[in-house]
Amino acid sequence: MSGAEQKPLRQRLALRFAAAGLATLFGLYVSEAVLRILNWPVSVSQARSDSLDARAARAAQVGIPFDLRDPLDVILDLRAQGRRAYPCSSIESYLGFGGIATTAEEPLETKGVINAVVKVGGVRVLPLSHPSKTLLVSDDNENGYYPVFVTDERGFRNPPGIWQIDQADIVGLGDSFVEGCEVRENESFMSRIRERYPRTVNLGLGGGSPLTALATLREYGGLLRPRVVLWCYYSGNDYQDAAAHVRSPILKAYLNDDGFTQNLATRQAEMDSAIRDFLEWEVQACLRLRRDPSIGSWLSLGRLRLNLADIPRRIALSRAVEPVDALESVLLSGAKMKALVESWGGRLYFVYLPNTGTLLQPLQWYESEQFRVLRAELEARGIPVIDVATPIRDRVDCAELLPFGLPGHFNATGNRVVAEEILKRLTEDPAKPLSSSSPLTGYP
């Protein structure tokens, strides 16, 4: 090929590469523009999802008010009223996988290890509660409103002064279903149980797993020495969370070392400060994402880069783990909790909650098989099982137990039904661990 012929070829190739580069660049900036126009956050917790739109539409049909603000707006409105509010924290946010903003300052998942985000004195710690005596806003409004509540002296969702009791009748462990994050204070199933047994303490925290239940019991259970512990297991994600959380060095230490503790109960002040700093960082990060209109931010594709940076973290939590590993971590957590509870003279129950995401569908074989295996293994280890899922599924209309009849957390009616099933089982237990409620000695 002559030099004259090579020159047009080089020009054509250069033009094609230039066109491809411009098209790619155009696509990136269109994506950045869309994210900003939609005010798309880094975390899916703040996103306007199809389910939110569906709930809002159903609320309009029945004339129920529906709060269309996002949680950041609720926090800012409360602060404008002089009330220092923070977003609701969770195990996922403490591990860098949740909250209303991502923490993209450093790699949190490396070679299969998931590190905690919060630090005290430069050392990583994994909080198992919210900051104490703090006004919090739930990150979702499944029932048309954002639950707002003040945490107790240890950072859990309980009435003030509950930690002054000398012994608890019932302690609840688990995730957001136990915490009651989507309903008002007196509507959660733990609050309903407290109506019957006033010395009931809720130690639930969003994003919890069997491993965090063990960790929470070890950190705080000795202060309460409960007669009954309800280890609540949500079939929708606890199995997967057990597989993911075993990759946290701190949570794995609770599993492998019976003497391991972070001494969280004796470090309340410094933990409160560290958690509030972390939650404030989340608020300010969201504000920066929302308010930064600078040309530099646009040119650097700031919103797109932050959303892309969040992808590996979410993949890490969903990364496949051998089922046997997840099952072993669940069973080992249960065995260690049983030994701990019995050392206080109490009784541990495994409470099986149905997957509300499939509650309105025929029972899937994998759900029934997972429960069959879990139940057999737990009962063989002497852990009684309270099956809440089967009686709920046997109801004529499960939709009345869910927010606007759509999958999510239980609504107030659903929480009441869960409480009734748990109390019925406790009453029927021949061991009679709660034959009567203890007097409220020392409790205001």
What's the gist of this structure?
The chain has helices at 3-37, 50-62, 71-80, 91-94, 176-179, 189-196, 210-224, 238-245, 249-256, 268-291, 295-299, 302-318, 323-343, 365-380, 389-393, 412-428; strands spanning 85-87, 109-110, 113-114, 119-120, 123-124, 135-137, 148-150, 170-173, 200-202, 228-234, 347-353, 385-387. It has 444 residues and is an alpha/beta fold. The protein has a single domain, classed as SGNH hydrolase (Rossmann fold, 3-Layer(aba) Sandwich), CATH 3.40.50.1110.
Corresponding CATH architecture: 3-Layer(aba) Sandwich
- Spans of at least 5 consecutive residues whose pLDDT stays below 50 are 40-48, 99-109, 320-324
What integer value in Å does the Rg equal?
Answer: 24 Å
Cα distance spanning the termini: 95 Å
Q: CATH topology, anyone?
A: Rossmann fold
Main beta sheet strand tally, sense and closure: 5 strands, parallel
Average predicted confidence as pLDDT: 84
Order of helices and strands: HHHEHEEEEEEEHHEHEHHHHHHEHEHH
